[in-house]
Every structure is written in structure tokens, then in C-alpha cells.
Amino acid sequence: MPKVTFYPSKKTIKARPGQTILQLSRVARVAIPTRCDGNAACLLCKVTIEKGTASPLSAGEERKLAERDKARGMRLACQVRVLEEDLVVRIPESRWKSVVEKALERQRLEEEEW
Ligand code: FES
Q1: Which of 39, 74, 75 to mutate for ligand 1's pocket (most ligand atoms within 8 Å of CB)?
Q2: 47 and 6 in contact (C-beta within 8 Å)?
Q3: Which of 1, 5, 23, 80 is deepest in the core (most CB within 10 A)?
Q4: Residue 105 Cα, ligand 1 centroid: separation in angstroms?
Q5: 3-state class of 96 per DSSP?
Q6: Pocket around ligand 1: residues whose beta carbon is below 6 Å from it?
Q7: Residue 102: which pLDDT band, with cuts at 50, 70 and 90?
Q8: Are 47 and 75 in contact, with CB atoms under 8 Å apart?
Q9: What separation in Å is there between the alpha carbon of 112 and the centre of ligand 1?
Q10: Which residue CA neighbors atom 3 of ligand 1 most closely?
Q11: Residue 97 predicted with pLDDT over 70
Q12: Phi, psi of 10 (to 5 degrees)
């Protein structure tokens, strides 16, 4: 039975071949944003498969993902399916989180100057 490990949380879960990464993230209680509930429409569920071989690009991914994202190995968690191999999946940090962290760091540095 293949296993899927999610980063950055490092949670690992057993998977059945054919399950999508989005389905498995819900079982593992790992947050992957979604607005279209798995219909390859919102593009919020982008992940990167860092290790292992997953299902080939679906028609939805071929149509929706930018060439740049495909070249970087990005996939849609709602479309990519587990095969027989273990996978390591990275969920990108949310843009808002990184913006807030940078603002807090800037504020902390300004306070240190006083
Ligand atoms: S959940 Fe919307 S594109 Fe995957």
C-alpha cells in the first residue's frame, strides 16, 4: 500500500491507488485550499510532487495549468492520483501567509531600531 507524505506538515498517510491527493489531504487533515471542490476549475489546489511517480497529467490539468507551472512539476491535487509508489507532496505556502510574515518581520526590525 503506497504512502503519501505531505510537506511542510510532514504528515504521512496510507493510500489506495487511484485516490487523489485532495482526497488524501482531507483524510490526513492537511489543508489544501479549494473553491471548486475538485473540478479542476479554481486552481487553488496546486501542489508539487517532489518524490515518486503519480498519474500523468489529466485533461483538466493539461488545459488549466500554465506551461510554467507544468515545467516546475506543479499538479492539481484534485486531479493527480496515487499509483503504486510512495509520494512526497509539497503544498505551497500561501501568499497571504508570506506577506503577513514579511510585514511582521519588517515591523520587528523597525521596533528594534527604536
Ligand atoms: S480543487 Fe479546484 S482546481 Fe483543484
Answers
A1: 39
A2: no
A3: 80
A4: 32
A5: helix
A6: 34-36, 38, 40-45, 76, 78
A7: confident
A8: yes
A9: 42
A10: 40
A11: yes
A12: 65, 25
Determine what percent of the chain is predicted with pLDDT higher than 70: 97
Name the residue of 42, 64, 75, 80 whose CB sits within 8 Å of the most ligand 1 atoms, as the mutation to test its pocket.
42
Q: How confident is the model at residue 100 (pLDDT cuts 50, 70, 90)?
A: confident
Kindly give the number of the ligand 1 atom that is closest to the alpha carbon of 46: 4
Q: What does the pLDDT read at residue 113?
A: 78
**C-alpha distance across the termini of the chain, in Å:** 57
Dihedral, 3, 65, 59, 93 alpha carbons, nearest 10:
20
Which domains does the chain possess? 3-113 (3.10.20.30)
pTM over 0.85: no
